[in-house]
Amino acid sequence: MKILVMGSGGVGGYFGGRLAGAGHDVTFVARGAHLEAMRRDGLVLDSQIGNLTVKPARAVASASEAEPPEVVLFATKLGDTERAAQSLAPIVRDGTVIITFQNGVDGPEIIGRALAKAHVVPGVARIASHISRPGVIEHRSPFARIEFGEAGGRPSPWLEAFHAACKAAGIDAVISRDIQRDVWLKFALLAPFSGMTTLTGATAGPIRATPGTRSLMEAAIREVIAVGFAAGVNIKPEDFALVWKAVEGQPPAMTSSMAHDRRAGKPLEVDYLSGAVVRLGERHGVPTPTHRFITQALSIVAGGEAKGS
User: Fold this and answer.
1) Beta strands per DSSP E along 16-74
2) What is the tens place of the pLDDT at every residue in 279-309?
3) Which of 267, 273, 278, 277 is closest to 301 using CA atoms?
4) What is the value of pTM for the model shown?
5) 2-177: CATH number
6) Is the domain covering 180-298 a CATH 3.20.70.20 domain?
C-alpha cells in the first residue's frame, strides 16, 4: 500500500514507521533537523513495545515531492492543518483517502474544505509519543492504538484494506462503528488534560491528588461532554465516568504533548482544544467557564513565547 505520512512526529512517525517496517511504501513529510536525520540515519522507533529502525526512510520536505498516495495519514499540529492540506493538492486524486489522526475535533472539516476531491475519514490516535531527538520517536507507554471509521459506521473497502495492513504491521487498529463518539470521548479527555498539564506544569498524578486541580479537571471534562451532547454527538452526561476512568488510569508521570510544547517554547494547540470547547459552547448555548479560563490563562504563551518579553 502506498502511504503518505503528513506530519512525522510522535503519531505519524510512530504508526508510519510501523507500516514502513512491515514493507509498505511509506513516504514521510518532515522538516528541519528531523527531516535531515531521517534521510541520513533512517527513522528510529524507541518504543516500550518494540524498537524498530526504518532505514532507508523515504522522507521529503514537501508533499509535492511525493508520488500520489492511496492513503494519507494526516497527523500535523492543528495550527498547521490548512497549510498542510493545501500542500497536498498537487498529489491528491479524486477519492484519495485521508485519515486524520490529530488532536481536537476541527481537523476533518478544515481538510475537507481545502481538498474537496479527497475522501476525509476521522480517526483517533491513542499513544504517548514524541520526537526525543531528530530522527527518533520515543514511545514510553504500553498502549499505541488507532481507530478510524466512516460516518454512520458504513463499511469501506479502502478502510478495510488499510486496517488489514495495520494489523499485519502489528498495530492495534480498530474500525469504529461510531467514530464521531470516539473522537469526542478522546476530546473530553484530551482538552482538559492538555490544558491542566500545560497550565500547571504538573503531571497526571499530582493533578489527580490535589483537590483544587482535581476539581478543575472534573469540571473541564463535564463541559466538553455537555458541549458534545448539545452538538448532537452520541455522548451523554453519564459518559463522565468513562472519561474519568481513563484519567485515573494514566501513569502518575503522564503529561501532554502541549505541555512538552510549552517547555520547548513552541506554539500551543490551546485554541483548538480548550478554545474549541469555548467556541462550540457559545454556538450551542453551553457555558464553558473552565475552558475559557484555561484558554485565557495560556493565551500569553499560545504563540510560543510570552508576549511583551
Assistant:
1) 25-29, 43-47, 52-54, 58-60, 71-74
2) 999 999 999 999 999 999 999 999 987 544 3
3) 267
4) 0.90
5) 3.40.50.720
6) no
